[in-house]
């Protein structure tokens, strides 16, 4: 029988550092030692100092191919007075690595010898004692310490150990980390999915992090939301592992039993930390093993793991946690933050006009792709309310600086073709890819104006002239050094559910048949097109059901339409077809690129142009359907 717990749980707002210090201090980590063959030692941490049991070399070895001689018998040799030496009496032949017998003390290289006959050689310069000989222990001396304890073994270390006669060595046992995914909604990857099911992927991410940090992950089966099951799983884990991670059920929901179970079985030190995301963390102990309850949302979970598990895993191994590179960047957009809690903001970073520009990604804790895309993370301290656009801040980097320097910062209206450009660009240079933020056409133009992007993609209809894009460039980018590149003609149309259940063909149909419209954000080209269609048909936004619900890309409009029977959106054909939806063409529009002149002239710009002018690109884009690649002359402003 499962025991019912009181639902009311109030989370603490404990400072992260304090929570971490307490956890580490209370964690009674008792690292164990194991012996491994030196050959399998890569990445392991030495548990004790390691001493050589053999010298390297363990005999005087010739360092060159040549002859071994007694130096004092060669002093007379001179260019004008060549000296003859007798084989087996005054010299012997040796190769590199051969032992030099004790009666000899120098080696002369074969290049410096003249063979007189089978038994005699001639030299024209004296040898100095010990020249070209590697004395015993030149590399490693028997009894010498090869490595201290707490050293992470690298390939070169393994060589020195083997040379020093160390065939096996004591290392710190990898800490075993039990990982318990919990939740009735979770199913194993690959299972058939019904609504409400969620693929259990956090477990794999956690296991992989644990391996990266030097631990040994034990990923458990999914545990259902039932206190009895959770209790059993935790008790089991505490017997088997050195530390325990339990995922989800950390908050205050009706099925969030974790904190109660932990306090029953052991002790809870912390429930709730002053961070966003990541607040509902549980830190405690069961049977003397540290246990960390991390929130279910993936981004919160990964961050919490890094804050609390990573230090434990490194601490157990007796080594320093590696630090990330940091970088000063200028913010392309404002970042607001609540006082009293640390905010963690994932960012894209680009190098524009000699400056690093960072744009915040979504802050939603359920968006794993924001972690995939992020170049770095900004930590906004608890006492700060955030930063203004244009402010310089220090961030931690997730990627090498080289890749960031070479990234092409695309800010503007989303189009699937930009993903194709990115992948073709990466094919040309692995360090180059397009980092795109989807902000709409007008915001894209503004980003170019402020020097916060290399390229923008725009599709802006000017209702007065009934032309696309150029009027906007002339208006908003007057006096800026930019290049306009005619890029694509694409079909915009009504995106409707498969089979077009409402039978929508025109704008009037949406009003008359009660279609629920999925709109785009202000400043988006598609929004401007829709508003101008409304005007043309003498309709008002009040007549459009759903007008206030704004999405930020064609694909999110399509995804929304897929969800609802009576919905309709405006967007490109490729978005409809990707989602398996129907499409009714409305207008052909021009989607063009605007880039800064300095990017146009740069190596990155040249590669970018090569890509978009390639046949491969045209083929891939036209395959999406609804596109025609345009090959007109660019105009330089
Ligand atoms: N009334 C309140 N509700 C919530 C609060 C709060 O303070 N008061 N906090 C919110 C925050 S912030 C977070 S974070 C979540 C944390 O909730 P739980 O830790 O209880 O997690 P679940 O609700 O079970 O799961 C949330 C979500 O996470 C995904 N998930 C979970 N496990 C996995 C997994 N193994 N693999 C992949 N994805 C997983 C899944 O999408 C779940 O829906 O609570 C808020 N609510
Ligand atoms: O902690 Mo929740 O993690 O803010 O999303």
From TrEMBL:
Q: Which domain of life is it from?
A: Bacteria
E.C. designation(s): 2.10.1.1
Listed pathway(s)? Cofactor biosynthesis; molybdopterin biosynthesis
The record's GO molecular-function terms, alphabetically, read: metal ion binding; molybdopterin molybdotransferase activity
Key word Transferase present in the record?
yes
Keywords of this entry:
Magnesium, Metal-binding, Molybdenum, Molybdenum cofactor biosynthesis, Transferase
Annotated MoaB/Mog domain ranges read: 178-315
A matching Pfam family: MoeA_C
Q: Does the entry feature the keyword Zinc, yes or no?
A: no
Cofactors (names) = Mg(2+)
For this record, the Gene Ontology CC terms, alphabetical, are: cytosol
Catalysed reaction, written as an equation: adenylyl-molybdopterin + molybdate = Mo-molybdopterin + AMP + H(+)
Q: Which InterPro entries match?
A: MoaB/Mog-like_dom_sf (IPR036425), MoaB/Mog_dom (IPR001453), MoCF_biosynth_CS (IPR008284), MoeA-like (IPR038987), MoeA_C_domain_IV (IPR005111), MoeA_C_domain_IV_sf (IPR036688), MoeA_linker/N (IPR005110), MoeA_linker/N_sf (IPR036135)
Single Gene Ontology BP term?
Mo-molybdopterin cofactor biosynthetic process
The similarity annotation says: Belongs to the MoeA family.
What NCBIfam families does this protein map onto? molyb_syn (TIGR00177), PRK14498.1 (NF011068)
Q: Which PANTHER family match?
A: MOLYBDOPTERIN BIOSYNTHESIS PROTEIN, MOLYBDOPTERIN MOLYBDENUMTRANSFERASE
Tell me, in a sentence or two, what this protein's role is. Catalyzes the insertion of molybdate into adenylated molybdopterin with the concomitant release of AMP. May be involved in the biosynthesis of molybdopterin.
The protein's name is Molybdopterin molybdenumtransferase
Naturally occurring in which organism (per UniProt)? Anaerobacillus alkaliphilus
């Amino acid at each position: 029988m499962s025991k019912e717990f009181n639902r009311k749980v109030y989370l603490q707002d404990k400072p992260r550092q304090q929570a971490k210090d307490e956890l580490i201090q209370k964690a009674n980590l008792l690292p164990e030692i194991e012996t491994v063959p030196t050959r399998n030692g890569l990445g392991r941490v030495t548990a004790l100092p390691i001493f050589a049991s053999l010298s390297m070399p363990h005999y005087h070895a010739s360092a060159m191919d040549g002859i071994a001689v007694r130096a004092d018998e060669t002093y007379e040799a001179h260019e004008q007075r060549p000296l003859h030496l007798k084989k087996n009496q005054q010299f012997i032949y040796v190769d590199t690595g051969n032992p030099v017998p004790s009666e000899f003390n120098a080696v002369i290289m074969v290049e410096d010898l003249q063979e007189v006959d089978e038994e005699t050689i001639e030299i024209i310069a004296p040898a100095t004692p010990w020249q070209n000989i590697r004395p015993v222990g030149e590399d490693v001396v028997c009894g010498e310490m090869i490595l201290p304890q707490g050293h992470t073994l690298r390939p070169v270390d393994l060589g020195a150990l083997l040379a020093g006669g160390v065939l096996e060595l004591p290392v710190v046992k990898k800490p075993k980390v039990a990982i318990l995914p919990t939740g009735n909604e979770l199913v194993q990857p690959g299972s058939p999915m019904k609504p409400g099911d969620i693929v259990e992927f956090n477990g794999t991410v956690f296991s992989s992090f644990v391996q990266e940090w030097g631990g040994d992950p034990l990923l458990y089966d999914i545990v259902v939301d039932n206190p009895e099951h959770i209790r059993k799983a935790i008790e089991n884990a505490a017997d088997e592992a050195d530390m325990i991670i339990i995922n989800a059920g950390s908050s205050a929901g009706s099925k969030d039993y974790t904190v109660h179970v932990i306090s029953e079985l052991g002790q809870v030190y912390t429930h709730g930390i002053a961070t966003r995301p990541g607040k509902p963390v549980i830190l405690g102990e069961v049977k003397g093993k540290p246990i960390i309850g991390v929130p279910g949302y993936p981004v919160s979970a990964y961050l919490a793991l890094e804050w609390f598990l990573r230090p434990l895993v490194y601490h157990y191994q007796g080594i320093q946690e590696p630090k990330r590179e940091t970088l000063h960047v200028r913010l392309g957009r404002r970042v607001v933050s609540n006082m009293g809690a640390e905010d963690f903001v994932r960012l894209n970073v680009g190098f524009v006009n000699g400056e690093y520009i960072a744009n915040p990604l979504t802050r939603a804790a359920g968006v794993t792709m924001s972690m995939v895309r992020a170049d770095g993370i900004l930590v906004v301290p608890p006492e700060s309310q955030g930063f203004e656009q244009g402010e310089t801040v220090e961030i931690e980097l997730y990627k090498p600086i080289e890749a960031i320097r070479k990234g092409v910062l695309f800010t503007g209206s989303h189009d699937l073709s930009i993903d194709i450009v990115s992948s073709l660009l990466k094919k040309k240079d692995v360090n180059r890819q397009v980092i795109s933020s989807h902000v709409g056409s007008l915001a894209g133009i503004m980003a170019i104006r402020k020097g916060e992007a290399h390229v923008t993609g725009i599709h802006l209809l000017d209702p007065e002239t009934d032309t696309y894009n150029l009027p906007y460039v002339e208006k908003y980018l007057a006096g800026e050094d930019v290049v306009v590149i005619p890029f694509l003609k694409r079909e915009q149309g009504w995106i409707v559910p498969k089979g077009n259940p409402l039978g929508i063909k025109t704008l009037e149909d949406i009003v008359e048949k009660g279609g629920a419209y999925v709109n785009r954000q202000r400043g988006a080209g598609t929004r401007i097109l829709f508003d101008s269609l409304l005007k043309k048909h003498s309709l008002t936004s009040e007549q459009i059901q759903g007008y206030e619900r704004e999405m930020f890309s064609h694909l999110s409009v399509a995804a929304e339409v897929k969800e609802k029977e009576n919905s309709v959106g405006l967007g490109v054909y490729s978005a409809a077809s990707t989602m398996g939806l129907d499409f009714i063409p409305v207008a052909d529009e021009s989607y063009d690129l605007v880039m800064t002149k300095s990017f146009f002239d740069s190596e990155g710009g040249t590669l970018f142009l090569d890509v978009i002018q390639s046949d491969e690109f045209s083929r891939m884009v036209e395959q999406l359907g609804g596109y025609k690649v345009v090959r007109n002359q660019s105009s330089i402003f």
